């Protein structure tokens, strides 16, 4: 062995003995003491993946020999290696080997920057103290939160039991109501038979009713609606509706940017600065009506097609946000049709004078009808209620139903421009601070946290579609907190929102302490 | 960034209709842009009939100077006189200049495209007859024929280019506007005059001669017709290249049955590929290449220009001219016809003869790109927009979390207060300095955007200053021109005014542009200039710039003027110590001296990925090496496969930046899936490991004008198969890259140049490929084919850090791939990677040579020196000599050191372990058998 080799060897030893902290244990830079046995200094080193055997002097000699990087735990020579900082006073940590001697202080004990010339302060004690305090706070938070969580679980359980009990009761009531309905129906049929028999004699006197009437009626309705709406819009009673008057109404904020631009207003006024009643009814109303209906939840896509306006996607998808109301409306309409006919008949008939006996039969039939309607309504209401509770019972409110108490609760968050709302298990919305209507950012879809943490993230999707883009959606990240609070809302990508929600419901003592142990 | 059609529609109804058609077609709106037929000068120039030139030299008027001659040129149809000047320049270059002898108005000649006054060489007049004049300079000869007028240029006695051989020259003299019919009626003796008049040039009959209307835009054209045009024939050439910027193949296509190539800098929304439409930049340089030689012409004109190309394939026409010009019948030929709306004829002939000679001759005229800071060659992460300062910090931090290198974070227009440049949105960026320090702590930089339009807002200081001081571009009647751009109503700083440039530069002072530091660099977008409501989305041609020039005359050079000012501003900001970095969208010949460029608003589809290679190749040979495309497409969302392939390809283009539209999904590399993150991380690491090569090539470009990326024919000029290849590039002369440009493929065809005399080594495995020509190479999602040429030595750094700054002192690895004689060589350039100290000799330029048994590193520039901490970590020799047992390192500081070697029989590679010698000294490593 010549002098030079000796020199190189001692240089290597200097690198090797990075941490000789009073003890005589030969410590290899970049690995925890516990793993020192993998690097016995009295024999050749075998790469930890077993792929190669190199002289021990090749360990931490700042040249990468092993494919797995295991010969260079303390130098940046292997791009795929990792470096262990002991960080005495704080938490130990592994960093990528490429962070060693790169001029950035990554380990609080300065051990990663031993030859870059970068002067790093050893602040492990301070950081450790801070971290322990943080940890304490976090643990305390979890403990406190966990208490509330337990309450929520109890409440959730109670709610479920209540729902079940309620459901049992509702079902019983429903059975009963069905019976009543049947009975009332029978009574009604009988009364109506008597009534129609009595009415036979008046029949010839009645004029024929045109079947085409109903269609026309809609047209009239439309015109009178237009007049009413014109008066509403004409806020200064000038006899004309102007751009400025339209601009005060969010109905006309077509692109939902929070303001009604002149262009938007012009569109509704058929490119005129102002219109009088006649022009409004004749031309502008066609443009206004769909949006008005939309706003009032009356919109039906079929109507739109009839209008002959083959408009683009945003238009077509806008009604989606009102879908729930709309469906309800349709249901009601279908079931109520008979009733409407009856009522109409009644008004017509009342114009004729009947003899006392007939009138009595008519009155009795009317009462029977009304009784039946009441009974039917009650059945329907009960059905709705039952569905509601069945849904609630079906919903996944967490392993212990801890989220059940949050069902239907809404939380707000305000930033510089918008007010956001998170309605748990329902929807998320955004509203401009400068006015305008709610924009749906998503309807409740499901939990979608990662494996093992399913209940850490909620997904709301199928919100209002963006121009030329996807339907808005929201991800809600849940974190442990003393109170239920919407902490922040961001839009990381266009039309994809992220909400941070703190809640005691995820302050799980057992789970979290397990996680902490893992980290250590 | 894109032009929102939204701004330009009058009613919502119309908008809806448009949106509809948009969704259906989803493509560029061609109606917005002119065809040649819709442009009156192009129409006039294009219909000139070949073989009937009215121009003739008046040889009696010849005046000879030391390095130039001038002669009068006469148009017998108009009886207008011109002065022709021919100047002999150094480096096989000639300049032909033609202007009117007695002009009615002056004409614009670009001031900033040429880097200096070109250096002249001595001219010898050897013959002058009434028929022709012959001059020689060095090995070149020029013959000017008097009637019909033609200029033939010979290199080594071979005719290489001929001007006006087809007789398409047209020089529309300035004239007085013809009287209206009413006025004519009042005039006397009209009929007599008509008989006396020459036939004229026909311009007066063109309805667009004195005013033009395109769409709703009126162009007043107060100077009337003033176009210039000239044709060039290149006998022996097989293909023409150049005249960027077009989203088209590298080899120019024949325009016989199609629109000419157009050069008119425009903001084209959703531009399409394989189009000759003009887009953002214009460099009017054209190369003609054939087996024997390469020749170039530089058309020094900043007005709107159209170029017709005839290739060898256009048999009939071409053959007759070949016969006419050279008397031969078999030779191939390329013809070009340049047509400009205004200015003079000023054309440089660059006679090569080799491809790299011509590229160099062009950069001698217009300059090379200054060596960038190393960070600029790293990875750039951009998006329209990072929402706020926390977003910027968090994104940069995520690169660390995923162990992916990152050098620069970018901010698009939303960082400003209401699109008022040089301001910050205080709500989203309350403390930009803190944000910047957060980046620079890891060696990273910030780039922010500054656009040329100024918001017309009475509360905006720049608007108030510019209004008061008259710094805006003016309308014809002297008012401040107003257009529509990002901020809404805007006006445009007139960068042609030196006082405006001075004012603009002062805005970058750190005490002026609050929230910036010397680590903040600049991106200039929209500088065509883009005007949303202007004709073809730019300024009207009759607005007036400083000096009274119409926009018509200067349009294409507008972007360059802004780049000059931004570069100079950044230079001054650091007191001349740090190399500026700027990125620009619109450029002209000469822009390479100031800025990098990118290919604008592309789309996330495979076609746009594919076109990024020919586009950057075309720019590279046109002086603009520092080119890249938005990875992985600006508009729309790439799927993970396209994202991977685009990163693998983008990592091998000089400028490597990811950027995307505000309505796209986030696409930082970890947002797809684990596999994608890993593959893209590998692509990044590939890029960073080759940075020593990139840096060396940029330095060599600065010194020699050699493009950083090159077409295959730059080094294999006689291999005709390479002429149309543009899906493959050479990095320098040593690395061959063939990205995957199609989805779901398991193999690609790679063309190996060298005709079997060269072995190519797969850079991943160092496996050799001996077979020349097209070879089918299997690929996986993890791999694109990249090869190192046998006979080359490539420097790499194998320790991939967070950023280039963190890698500065890291050791080098040399990859030696031997040629058939067992030899190899290469170069390596090293300096401080940031400052201008290298211009004062603080650098190392090493020649690396392997003679078959000994590897040496010697200083090429003996007088320079630089103290580096970097050392030699490892040497890999592919196809090494047999039986090597060890090696000995020899250097002054370490004298003799024994080195371990290790031979890997699987790929036939010998590794020399840890020579440890500092790169700042000369050394040798001898292999011991």
What does this structure look like?
- The complex is a heterodimer of chains A (520) and B (929).
- Chain A is α+β, with helices and mostly antiparallel strands and 520 residues long.
- Among the domains of chain A are: 1-122, no CATH class; 214-334, Recoverin, domain 1, CATH 1.10.238; 408-519, Mannose-6-phosphate receptor binding domain (Cation-dependent Mannose-6-phosphate Receptor, Chain A), CATH 2.70.130.
- Chain A contains twelve helices and 14 strands.
- In chain A, the strands form four sheets. An eight-stranded mixed sheet of chain A has the order 7-8-9-10-11-12-14-13.
- In chain A, helix 3 (213-233) packs across helix 6 (277-295).
- The model of chain A is unreliable at 1-25, 209-221, 299-340 and 512-520 (pLDDT under 50).
- Chain B is α+β, with helices and mostly antiparallel strands and 929 residues long.
- Chain B has a domain at 734-929: Immunoglobulin-like (Sandwich).
- Chain B is built from 17 helices and 49 strands.
- In chain B, the strands form eight sheets. In chain B, strands 5, 6, 7, 8, 9, 10, 13, 15, 18 and 19 form a ten-stranded antiparallel sheet that branches. In chain B, strands 40-41-45-48-47-46-49-44-43-42 form a ten-stranded mixed sheet. In chain B, strands 1-2-3-4-20-17-16-14 form an eight-stranded antiparallel sheet.
